[in-house]
Write a structure and sequence with these properties.
- Strand 2 (22-27), helix 2 and strand 3 (59-61) form a beta-alpha-beta unit.
- The chain has a single domain (2-259), classed as Rossmann fold, CATH 3.40.50.
- The chain is built from eight helices and seven strands.
- The chain has 261 residues and is of the alpha/beta class.
Length: 261
């Protein structure tokens, strides 16, 4: 069964440790999700998905890590630099390894190129520097990889569904419809198209001198005012329920594999 850590006493937690060897650490991000979704989408999705597995999930579910690196700069977005996030996550994971967990799964509700790389590289370095905990497996699981329907939206067509689009909006319509606004606003057509074509297009890279030695200054493109990178108008609670079911089944299967080793 899933043991929800934030609701447990120290006695209950110690008892859970005797029954399962796996801990799941959901990771979210506080960032803009257009005018139709709240800033907490990634927190809610990361934390809600393992809870939905209920008694079928053989793991402790840790409290959701709320802050990570977005890369966006619109109002309400809180960026924690990838380096700080990496060290913070590494410390959290090392604590669970100290407690004796044999499988530590970081469940990313927010992906992002820089954020995902920071998570993976931090845990790789943790294992490299700490031979005493190499009996523990560390995993970084981006939630969308567990859902074929979500991945289809990510990968099908020249313009695809990334951030604040059909998938994320559908999940929120499924479990938190009270937080979904009816008004959908998009950026100018060309800007919206480019963000659906390349999820990293939002980054503006500038060099004062044209040289391979110069480190570029990276910022968000000024023309981005809304930041929706997908098709929220195609969302619906039925799609959210299907994506949720697929992620839950995929997560249960993966945790069962870890627990059986």
């Amino acid at each position: 069964m899933a043991y929800i850590m934030e609701e447990m006493t120290v006695e209950e937690f110690a008892d859970a440790q005797k029954k399962v060897k796996t801990v799941i650490i959901p990771v979210g991000c506080v960032e803009q999700h257009g005018y139709h979704l709240p800033l907490s989408v990634d927190l809610i999705n990361a934390g809600e998905l393992p809870r939905r597995a209920g008694d079928r999930l053989k793991a402790v579910v840790a409290p959701t890590v709320p802050y990570s690196f977005s890369g966006g700069e619109l109002p309400g977005t809180v960026n924690v630099s990838p380096q700080v996030f990496a060290l913070y996550l590494s410390d959290i994971c090392s604590e669970f390894a100290r407690m004796g967990f044999l499988n530590i799964v970081v469940l990313l509700g927010h992906g992002g190129t820089d954020n995902t790389y920071a998570a993976k590289s931090s845990l790789e370095m943790l294992l490299r520097r700490r031979p005493d905990i190499r009996k523990t497996t560390f995993s970084v699981v981006e939630v969308f990889y567990l859902s074929p329907s979500w991945m289809e939206l990510f990968t099908t067509g020249a313009e695809r569904d990334f951030h604040a689009g059909a998938a994320e909006t559908s999940l929120m319509m499924y479990w938190r419809p009270d937080l979904v606004r009816e008004r959908i606003v998009m950026d100018e057509p060309y800007v919206a198209k480019m963000m659906r074509t390349d999820q990293d297009w939002f980054e503006k890279r500038e060099k004062k001198i044209d040289s391979n030695f110069i480190i570029p200054a990276v910022s968000q493109r000024e023309e981005i005012k809304i930041g929706v990178m997908g098709f929220p108008e195609k969302a619906g609670p039925e799609l959210g329920e299907r994506i949720c079911g697929e992620v839950v089944e995929g997560l249960i299967k993966y945790i069962d594999e870890l627990e059986s080793r």
